[in-house]
Specification:
binds P-hydroxybenzoic acid, about 35% helix, 8-stranded mixed β-sheet, binds adenosine-5-diphosphoribose, alpha+beta, about 400 residues
């Protein structure tokens, strides 16, 4: 097989890149080691920055998101019983759209079907060859068939556990990592959201987040110990703990119900530099991970895709390489700002097992400053709605 761009990974990064390339007549083949159903079965965050919704529009995949997504002009921050709203719209002129990543991925797959884009699932033993040459190729297996794709470019969109990042020789890349000493226990329930906007809660018992997918599908998280397992938490215990971490006024409105999904995610900050090696370009989780506090994972994957799409469009149209040559630096400049915001917000809102009384006072003072200073709220709002690409 031959294509212009071999995309490893059929998650949001790979699918969005493939859809954008198709708008410029650039051919690609997407490989994923899982089935489509497996990919669509993943429960992920659901807050889209303005830049992402613009990209979906550019890719011609925004219709359902515009119909079914919820535009949020703000979010509630609470510290114990005190709560205040960050008015994104008033502070920045922009809002965010609440629309599940699963739905984004589904829309992207359906759009790829409409253009008969080639997507190969259950691809095993994917290996990227000669990435540092002008004629890279990818080998892989499907069942007992060994297959090969000749290409001009490889886009590594295969997430944190993929093969793309480690295709770059260890002595040519540098990793930066911070692992947080807690996780998030998440629950999905067919219940109406507790609030019409998201509630980010910090309390003496730890962090909690009240989110949603639609008017009768809510997503809740509580900070938990790394040693916790989902089966350690009954639904009743989860709801009781959540109520203890959000303001009483919110807790009184909480509609509880059976969990239809319950899982624990660890929190880490991670960046691998550079995001390019020869004709291999990394996008999204393949290159970086953020703690979910600021909802930046999917949105930073989108800005990577935007920069790579711009570079590849120039390369295939003119042969010029200024776009792809600047890709890694441009993408990393925005990645690091997303990493900082996610780290800042996580450090502000969570209780750290080893934090001192002084550390707690610093958190309290930072939240008090955020509550009382418009300049602090504007800085937070600008990061939350998404910094310009
Ligand atoms: N070969 C082929 N495909 C692979 C391989 C491999 N060796 N390893 C992983 N994959 C596939 C996975 O099955 C997955 O579908 O790559 C895809 C990567 O998708 P994501 O992990 O979702 O990463 P990305 O597309 O960058 O999206 C980032 O997804 O995980 C969330 O929080 C993350 O919101 C962020 C978004
Ligand atoms: C979610 O809805 O899953 C969600 C929303 C906002 C976050 C993290 C997760 O910051």
């Amino acid at each position: 097989m031959r294509t212009q761009v071999a995309i490893i990974g059929g998650g949001p990064s790979g699918l969005l890149l493939g859809q954008l390339l198709a708008t410029r007549g650039i051919d690609c083949i997407i490989l994923d080691r899982q089935s489509r159903d497996h990919v669509l079965g993943r429960i992920r965050a659901g807050v889209l920055e303005r830049g992402f919704t613009d990209l979906l529009e550019e890719a011609g995949v925004a219709d359902r998101m515009k119909r079914e997504g919820f535009v949020h002009d703000g979010a509630l921050i609470s510290y114990g019983e005190e709560a205040f709203r960050i008015d994104f719209k008033a502070l920045t002129g922009h809002a965010v759209t609440v629309y599940g990543q699963t739905e984004v991925t589904r829309d992207l797959y359906e759009a790829r079907d409409r253009i008969a884009g080639q997507t190969i699932h259950d691809a095993e033993d994917v290996v990227i060859h000669d990435a540092d040459s002008n004629a890279p190729f990818v080998t892989f297996k499907v069942g007992d068939q060994s297959l090969r794709i000749e290409c001009d470019v490889v886009a590594g969109c295969d997430g944190f556990h993929g093969v793309s990042r480690t295709t770059i020789p260890a002595d040519r890349r540098q990793a930066f990592e911070k692992v947080y000493p807690f996780g998030w226990l998440g629950v999905l329930s067919r219940t109406p959201p507790v609030n019409h906007e998201l509630v980010y809660a910090s309390s003496d018992r730890g962090f909690a987040l009240c989110s949603m997918r639609n008017t009768n599908l809510s997503r809740y998280y509580i900070q938990c110990d790394l040693s916790d397992r989902p089966e350690d938490w009954t639904d009743a215990a989860f709801w009781q703990e959540l109520k203890r971490r959000i303001p009483a006024a919110q807790a009184a409105n909480l509609v509880t119900g059976p969990s239809i999904e319950k899982s624990i995610a660890p929190l880490r900050s991670f960046v691998s530099e550079p995001m390019r090696w020869g004709r291999l370009f990394l996008c999204g989780d393949a290159a970086h991970i953020v703690p979910p506090t600021g909802a930046k994972g999917l949105n930073t994957a989108a800005s990577d895709v935007h920069y790579l799409f711009e570079g590849l469009t120039q390369f295939f149209a003119t042969g010029q390489t200024t776009g792809i040559d600047s890709y890694s630096a441009r993408a990393l400049a925005r990645v690091w700002k997303a990493e900082r915001f996610s780290w800042w917000f996580s450090s502000l809102m969570h209780r750290f097992p080893d934090q001192s009384a002084f550390d707690l006072r610093m958190q309290q003072a930072e939240i008090a400053f955020l509550r009382s200073h418009e300049s602090a709220q504007r800085a937070m709002a600008e990061n939350y709605v998404g910094l310009p690409y």
